[in-house]
Write a structure and sequence with these properties.
Belongs to the NusA family. This is Transcription termination/antitermination protein NusA. One of its GO terms (molecular function) is DNA-binding transcription factor activity. It is found in: Cytoplasm. The structure is a single chain. It is built from 16 helices and 16 strands. The chain has 415 residues and is of the alpha+beta class. Among the domains are: 128 residues, N Utilization Substance Protein A, Chain:P, domain 4 (2-Layer Sandwich), CATH 3.30.1480; 68 residues, Nucleic acid-binding proteins (OB fold (Dihydrolipoamide Acetyltransferase, E2P)); 60 residues. The strands form four sheets. Strands 1, 2, 3, 4 and 5 form a five-stranded mixed sheet that branches. Strand 11 and strand 12 form a beta hairpin. Helix 6 runs antiparallel to helix 9, helix 10 runs antiparallel to helix 12 and helix 15 packs across helix 16. The protein starts with a strand and ends with a helix. The N terminus is likely disordered.
């Protein structure tokens, strides 16, 4: 009987990646034993042998030779007259090994076996891919851009596995071309329609953490600990670091000589500003450091409400809040405290009015919105242009104009 060469029929099985040969051979045997059970009712007396070098498949049937009228189980026994046709010197009681011609199963059965085998191998690949990347969640990998769509990007790893990077996981200023290599972190692995999907990210905090590990040997060696990272991808990041060795300056080690270590990370993150601060259990000091680059004059804490009132000079308010409120937002995430910024009036002005005095004319939520950007008096609001107020708050332009008219009218009345 000519053997079935599985390499010719299933070339991809020979090259199946991440599947060890014994497992692959076991799957092949199981598939054909299933075929035997369908045809003969049992596979107990059949041996399926697969050559893992050539891919050749052979099936042998084992039966005991019995007298012609003593056959009780055709799968386990063979009449003496049939046995001597196979080999003339067989005797009653001996075992006959007979090769089974797979062609006898029929073309339809063989085709079904191929489809089952393909499905089993596909499942093995999926499971291995799932396990491989589930163990690498949080690790940096490099992939090649294969396809770019509106909402996501498809990359291939060095083994040809497909990886997905959604638009939401890309830095807003990221721009990639097909064939370009991209570094990112494995964010999660999930099953969709029985298919493993590997999600990559360049915006997750762990991406910055891993980049720091690569650039700063002291972090990898455990001499410096990254306590917390908060990010506004592409805009600003704050990293709190700590060293248990007094001889090591954690901030200086992370920044490097003349910024040599941090510059590479900044370029990778599309010029994202990275503030490295020394972690401390002193909340007041941590708040002061987290609001870098602003200089703080005074801080009043309410530990029960987890809130802090921060007082600064007028020229420091915008620095503390940052562009689009990013700096203060990240400081709040880093410390866990709600932060309100106030101007520290060192110089007495001739005349000013607290915004609370306008409660009858200005809605409370508008006053709160102004206080968030450090404007708690009428003059502090009027010192800013309409465009600046619109940009730094959630107020509409018409609302800002109406607000300015109310405040200016009050000063005219006072005059």
């Amino acid at each position: 009987m000519p053997s079935i060469n599985l390499i010719d029929s299933f070339q991809e099985f020979k090259d199946a990646e991440n599947i060890d040969r014994p497992t692959l051979m076991k799957v092949l045997e199981d598939v054909f034993k299933t075929l035997l059970r369908k045809k003969y009712g049992s596979d107990d007396n059949f041996d399926v042998i697969v050559n893992d070098q050539t891919g050749d498949l052979e099936i042998f049937r084992r039966r005991e030779v019995v007298e012609d009228d003593m056959v009780e189980d055709e799968n386990a026994q063979i009449p003496y007259t049939e046995a001597i046709k196979i080999e003339a010197d067989y005797n009653v009681g001996e075992e006959v090994y007979e090769e089974v011609d797979v062609a006898h199963f029929g073309r339809r059965a063989i085709l079904a076996a191929k489809q089952t085998l393909a499905a089993r191998i596909g499942d093995l690949k999926k499971n291995n891919l799932m396990k491989k990347y589930a163990d690498r969640v949080g690790d940096i990998i490099t992939g090649e851009v294969y396809q770019i769509w509106k909402k996501e990007m498809l990359l291939l790893d060095d083994e040809g596995n497909e990886l997905i990077m959604p638009k939401t996981e890309q830095i807003p200023t990221d721009f990639f071309k097909k064939g370009e290599t991209v570094r990112s972190v494995v964010k999660k692995v999930e099953m969709r329609n029985n298919t493993p999907v590997i999600i990559l990210s360049r915006t997750h905090a762990s991406f910055l953490e891993k980049l720091l590990e690569i650039e700063v040997p002291e972090i990898l060696d455990g001499l410096i600990t990254v306590k917390k990272i908060v990010r506004e991808p592409g805009e600003r990041a704050k990293v709190a670091v700590e060293s248990y060795d007094d001889r090591i300056d954690p901030v200086g080690a992370c920044v490097g000589m003349k910024g040599s270590r941090i510059h590479g990370i900044v370029r990778e993150l599309r010029n994202e500003n990275i503030d490295i601060i020394n972690y401390t259990n002193n909340v007041t000091l941590l708040l002061q450091r987290s609001l870098t680059p602003a200089r703080i004059n005074n801080i009043k804490l309410d530990n029960e409400k987890m809130s802090a009132d921060v007082y600064l000079d007028s020229d420091q308010v915008s620095l503390a809040i940052g562009k689009k409120g990013v700096n203060i937002k990240l400081a709040q995430e880093l410390t866990g405290y709600s932060i309100d910024v106030f101007r520290d009036a060192k110089e007495e002005v001739d005349f000013d009015i607290d915004l609370a005095e306008f409660a009858d004319e200005i809605e409370p939520w508008i006053i709160e919105e102004l206080k968030k950007i450090g404007c708690d008096t009428a003059l502090s609001v009027l010192d800013l242009s309409n465009e600046e107020l619109v940009r730094r708050t959630d107020l509409e332009e018409e609302t800002v104009k109406e607000l300015r008219n109310i405040l200016e009218a009050e000063f005219k009345n006072e005059d």
